[in-house]
Amino acid sequence: MESEHQPRLRSVVSYVQRGGRMTVGQQRAWTQRWPELGRRVSELPPGPIDFAAWFGRPAPVLLEIGSGMGETTAQLAAAEPEVNYVAVEVYEAGLGQLMLRAEKLGLTNLRLLHGDAVILLTEHIPPDSLSGVRIFFPDPWPKKRHHKRRLVQPEFVRLVASRLAPGGMLHLATDWAHYAEQMLEVCSAEPLLRNRFPDWAPRPSWRPVTKFEQRANEEGRISRDLIFERVPEL
Asked: Cβ distance 128 to 165 under 8 Å?
């Protein structure tokens, strides 16, 4: 699926749409917590989201694209209470599970968006406004004929970079070597971004190891991190 407003940009919904019903707990979270914590991108009013009003405070806004089941997201939000942490995801059950994790940790600095990250960034997040964007272990689409479906492409990275405030960080991680090389090439070619390291970033100790990363380690795949900084426009 591609946004009609940005036909050349691949949408986050180019990921495989996972099926299956929500658990009783996830459904309860949707019923009880979604009105407070979540919004659907397709139902947002025109224009930028007022994050300060939604969170009830002004604070740096950090966006995570593709939060999955929320295993990492909840822990990172808990570790950064001074940040307004926003997660966008297409998988409803994943958002339900993340709300359960947020409830268990007593998080107050996390908000959720269901839908297309491209539309969110294009229509609802103004330029130069985000303190950081995180994209951890996006769908690798390992078959060569499917590489065009990967999220990290030049047009998408250009869009993300434009939404970062100067000094803001784009942090990516993947355990697929070819995708890691593609990420490095694409981000290095974006004029608004500067690599904080000669190539790969040291694995941050604060990034939790998920079950998927642990499985990759067991299968002999090395996880790579990339951290790029938004530079001021000349």
From this structure: yes
Q: Give CA–CA dist 230/7, Å, rounded.
A: 25
In the set 50, 128, 139, 199, the catalytic residue is 139
**Catalytic annotation on 139?**
yes
**In the sheet where 224-230 sits, what is the strand order?**
38-40, 110-114, 84-89, 61-65, 130-136, 164-174, 224-230, 193-195
Domains along the sequence of the chain with CATH: 36-230 (3.40.50.150)
Which residues line the annotated binding site for S-adenosyl-L-methionine?
64, 89, 116, 139
Q: Which pTM was predicted?
A: 0.90
Q: Which residues are annotated as a binding site?
A: 64, 89, 116, 139, 143, 175, 210-213
Mean pLDDT along residues 26-30? 92
Place of tokens 């939060």: 67
